[in-house]
Amino acid sequence: MVKFPGKRIDVARAHFQFARKRTVGVGIRANSNKPRQGELMRKVKYRLNDPGLAPRRTKLEIPGWAGKREPRANGSREQVWHCVPFSEGAQYGIELFYPYDNELHVSTIDGRLVLEADWGPAPDGGVQWRPFRNFGDHFYTYQILLDLKVEKGMAIRTEPHPRFYTDRTDTVPIAVPALIRNWWPMMFFTVFKAPAEGRTHVFRRNEPFAQIIVIPEEAEFELERMGEEEAAERELQARRIYHSRPTLSAGTEWTSSTDTVFDGTYRHLHRAAKEKARQD
Question: Quick one: which of 212, 186, 203, 206 has its CA closest to 57?
Answer without folding.
Answer: 212
